[in-house]
Amino acid sequence: MNIYLNESDQFVKHKLKTKYYIRYADDFVILSRERAELERLLPYIEAFLRERLKLSLLGPLSHGNAFTLQKKVEASYSSTYESSNAKSG
């Protein structure tokens, strides 16, 4: 997950220029004194995650301020996995 989300780290830090950004595994926190600043960033982050990484945000989880990532798993994954195992077995 760390390597996969590195691209989002770079986007948030360098393109959006967030000053206080923390990520641990698939959770991230952006700190700001201004709620409006966080609300302004959210659509950009959601679009980047959806379009580039095929991820979506789950949330709000608590008090309307916490979000977590959920990887969208393609429905075809299980059939692809099963067919590759059938070929090798």
Overview of this protein structure:
Helix content is 51%, strand content 20%. The longest helix is centred in the middle third of the chain and has 18 residues, at 35-52. The strands form two sheets. The protein has a two-stranded antiparallel ribbon. The protein has a two-stranded antiparallel ribbon with strand order 3-4. It has one domain (2-88): Gyrase A, domain 2. The model is unreliable at 68-81 (pLDDT under 50). The protein has helices at 2-15, 35-52, 76-88, and strands spanning 20-24, 27-31, 55-58, 68-71. With 89 residues, it is an alpha+beta fold. The two termini are 29 Å apart.
Termini separation (Å)? Answer: 29 Å
Number of helices: 3
Helicity, as a percent range: 40-55%
Number of strands: 4
Instruction: Write down the overall mean pLDDT.
Output: 75
How would you describe the shape? globular
Summing up helix and strand content along with how strands pair, one would put the structural category as alpha+beta
Main sheet makeup: 2 strands, antiparallel
Second rung of CATH, namely the architecture:
2-Layer Sandwich
Give the class-level CATH name. Answer: Alpha Beta
CATH fold label: Gyrase A, domain 2
| Radius of gyration over all CA atoms, rounded | 16 Å
Strand order of the largest sheet: 1-2
| The number of domains | 1
Given as residue ranges, the uncertain stretches (5+ residues, pLDDT < 50) are 68-81
- Give the helices and strands as they follow along the chain: HEEHEEH
Strand content: 15-25%
